[in-house]
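User: Predict the structure for this protein chain, please.
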Amino acid sequence: MKITAADVVVTSPNRNFVTLKITTDEGLTGLGDATLNGRELAVVSYLRDHVVPLLIGSDPHRIEDTWQFLYRSAYWRRGPVTMAAIGAVDMALWDIKGKVAGLPVYQLLGGASRSGLMAYGHASGASLPELFDSVREHQALGYRSIRVQTGVPGLNRIYGIASQSGPADAGAERYDHEPAQRGALPAEEDWDTRAYLRHIPTVFEAVRNEFGPELPLLHDGHHRMTPIQAAKLGKSLEPYDLFWLEDCTPAENQEALRLVRQHTTTPLAIGEIFNTVWDFQSLIKEQLIDYVRAASTHFGGITPLRKVMDYAAQYQVRSGFHGPTDISPVGLAAQMHVGLAIHNFGIQEYMQHGTKTNEVFRQSFTFEDGYLHPGDQPGLGVELDVDEAGKYPYETAYLPYNRLADGTVHDW
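Assistant: Here is the predicted structure, written as structure tokens:
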């Protein structure tokens, strides 16, 4: 069997997606997600101009060899653009291998270790009543675990609040339930860490009083705190028994997690902006985190995601794969197959895509009673409707950014 074509499909139904479709001489096709939120066209060029020519005529069954070739032959390794491109190829090859075998990918990874994947949803509100309504809405949808993001008094627009993530101006449009916005320029948001640190513990106290001690609650700090600020937040949230505190401090400085760990027993999750196992090496070995937040799309695909979780298993570190709507249904399916197979699964982030997206990407996975399952169709279980995708051309869109009260650009 040989690869005869590799097409890069860019579509923007409810948001921008980049999909690689590999075709073999036997007529089998495989899909891979290459979406890099806010920088999608950089990956498009990397794939079309540099990777696709290397794939034509190669054997799609040689997944490990192809991964190593694309990673090592480039010389300039790592980075989100490179790893998203490699990840798309890797997913597509696993998709093809599953179709050849007549099995879902999780069966090729060793079979299921559980009957379903516990998922968490994103509840948010600018005020406590709005937040409580959002939590109830997510429970009604079937979520058994809830991420809580809240407005902060005195701040107009901040990360994670759906009602505050509206257009920055008449030319911008928020889309598919996430912060990214269509428009020529990124939206500016505001930030005050001290106000945030004062407010957040009171919010979780109120949520616990309203919804009780059993509901697993998560929170995303989104890289905005210094290490000592993150340690202070983790300690102040201990009475409210969080499932995890995510991205409490910028992830580039791995040593920072040592300080955080010294001061709090709140479980820590990190890694959605990581691209290789090297970014996790010290964090896992020193047991400075509890959950791996890597995304198959930005981490090089299924192959390295499985490897990093095998490494993490030695240290009782579990998975918490990144899964908002900037991961396409293809990338989400890839993570579901890994999560179903590995022993050290923790939880799966799941933001539901819009109707137009689900018409472009035909999916076999299910979400019932709070649990995801990738389905039992051969391969990944997602098919691309190319004609439907063609109805939605790429539209410029950016993630927002933060400024402090004095005008300083701050981590968003």
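The chain has 14 helices and 21 strands.
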